[in-house]
UniProtKB/TrEMBL annotation:
GO terms for molecular function: 5-amino-6-(5-phosphoribosylamino)uracil reductase activity. The lineage of its organism: Bacteria, Bacillati, Actinomycetota, Actinomycetes, Propionibacteriales. Pfam families: RibD_C. PANTHER family: 2,5-DIAMINO-6-RIBOSYLAMINO-4(3H)-PYRIMIDINONE 5'-PHOSPHATE REDUCTASE, DIHYDROFOLATE REDUCTASE FAMILY PROTEIN (AFU_ORTHOLOGUE AFUA_8G06820). Coiled coil: none annotated. This is Reductase. GO terms for biological process: riboflavin biosynthetic process.
Length: 184
């Protein structure tokens, strides 16, 4: 079975975006293209929520960036109950699925792993449903104090898989969810 990996840039205090929804702190970690390329070697599908789809589809299809061709070539799946059309510039459009059962089916398919970028609300739903296999946090050396937290108040056990320096100034933390107190 394919693994579903949630990968997110976060601040040291656990925020994925500031109070205005911006994530300008991404640039604080320096260069990490080699590690991004390694991620693309293990994935073939990108899972997105509707809001992150709109953001990504408005930027990545025409962005001149070293990883843009790799990202644009991925199979793109959007979990949404409202979107009908999901174009991706001149590339293959994304596929829309309506529920978490479709994500379960996606995980059961043959192929490489699946990555979830952004899409915090979808991440919370997938985590509660036990569908997230790995959480990779790319911790940026910034404290925001307020903003959009990566985690909800749901209790969750995590097993540390890896922790190491990442980029020029960041830290990479990888965890495996081990369950929540509410589900035991």
């Amino acid at each position: 079975m394919r693994q579903l990996i949630f990968q997110e840039y976060v601040t040291v205090d656990g925020y994925a975006a500031d109070a205005d929804g911006e994530a300008s702190f991404f640039g604080t970690i320096g260069e990490h293209e080699a590690e991004d390329r390694a991620t693309f070697e293990r994935i073939d599908t990108m899972l997105l929520g509707a809001e992150t789809y709109r953001l990504f589809a408005g930027v990545w299809p025409t962005l001149e960036h070293p990883i843009a061709p790799l990202l644009n070539a991925l199979r793109k799946v959007v979990v949404s109950t409202t979107l009908e059309d999901t174009p991706w510039g001149s590339h293959e459009p994304a596929t829309v699925v309506r529920d978490l059962d479709a994500v379960r089916a996606l995980k059961a398919e043959d192929g490489k792993d699946i990555i979830l970028w952004g899409s915090i609300s979808l991440f919370h739903s997938l985590l509660a449903a036990g569908l997230v296999d790995e959480i990779e946090l790319r911790v940026c050396p910034v404290l925001l104090g307020v903003g959009r937290p990566v985690f909800s108040s749901q209790q969750l056990g995590l097993e540390l898989i890896e922790a190491r320096p990442w980029g020029e100034t960041g830290v990479l933390q990888r965890f495996r969810p081990t369950g929540s107190a509410a589900h035991r």
